[in-house]
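P.,

For your records, the input lines for the assembly:
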Amino acid sequence: MGGRVTGEDIDDNMQRTTETFTSVRPRLFGIAYRMLGSVSEAEDIVQETWVRWQGADRDAVENAPAFLATITTRLSMNLAQSARARHETYVGPWLPDPIDTSANPELGAERGEALEYAVLLLLEKLTPAERAAYVLREAFDYPYPLIADIVQSSEPATRKLVSRARKHLTVERRRPAPAPEHRRLLAAFLTAAQSGDVVSLEKLFAADVVSYSDGGGVKLAARIPIIGRERVAKFIAAFSSHFWTDADLRWVEANGHPAVELSRDGVVYTILTMTTSEAGIDQLLWLMNPAKLRPMATVSL
Amino acid sequence: MTGHHCSSKTTPYQHGAVVHALRAAAETGDAAVISALLDPAVEMLTDGGGLVAANPHGVRGAQAVARRICDVLDRQPAEISVREINGQAGLVLRRGGSVSAVVCVNVRHRRVTDLWVVLNPEKLRHWNAPHD
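Structure tokens returned:
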């Protein structure tokens, strides 16, 4: 008996592995869908979680549902980071995939929180870590220490992520700035950024402005989003000199809004887009991988 | 803080009532009837994903949005039904038996403040997949 592994044991083991996964599958889909707003991406992530679960040292896993939620959440955070760049270059407005919740009792079965369409649209504006922390807390009621572990942060920092996300979602949705104002903000930003003028930059930013990079470039080294008026202003001012030196600026259109393409010696190295509202500049996005981008039309001024 | 949760002031019942009224209004094909349900600053965003023609900048204002809804339904008549979408009442448009559009709305003070129209067939694929 002892030590011999029979075919029956293997079947048993496989069955338990599958059962554990199947029981949390709706929750895994629920996490990924809320974080990404995409059914197909969420399904891919659930599938990838299954593959990793099969390959994991399962005997060493104490809490299988938490382990699986961790894999799914981290995969979703990674994908959310690159999805932001894709959404910015999407043709026209990007909206989440709507889900028929009357036909998907799976999704609503646990908790309906953070599923409303308006909320998904707001979640999309948060950083991946904020989104993850908010979804795990609000939709699935995970304890903070576990969330901290999943998003690889400290517990106080995780509480901050959730409260920042909540604040974002409770403040009334800002109206996007009209096109002329958007263009004015972008032009004023370019002037202030090139001269490294921190004070002027701060005046253009919303208090909770976020600067993102798609991580394609090394120089900006800011895969992690920078948040807050003062910090973003200082960050932009700090790379004012070398980043803009000899840059040719060309106005282009990205996602229906004016954007700016930066090139040097005829080589495009960055496309800068932003979202704006009556509060000022809400988000800056630095696309450092222009080779991957769709060709953009030049805007006639 | 004067801000409030984007939907906390609207109960599911009120939300549902406005959506049902919007469906009925859309069927009249009368822009004035539709616009009566819309917030003056209503915004309609359409996701066509580059596969279906859609205004990339959205449409704003009650009259413009109401007119657009009438124009579209006039050119491409659809069977409209109310359905629970992402946990709230929304509209599903069907043409020739398959789902051609899904519309989510935000309601505030009993008026529609946002319409989010998904036309991108890739995003509607799971609406038209056969149920197994």
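Two observations worth noting. The domain at 12-128 of chain B is CATH 3.10.450.50 (Nuclear Transport Factor 2; Chain: A,). The first strand of chain B starts at residue 38 and ends at 47.

Regards
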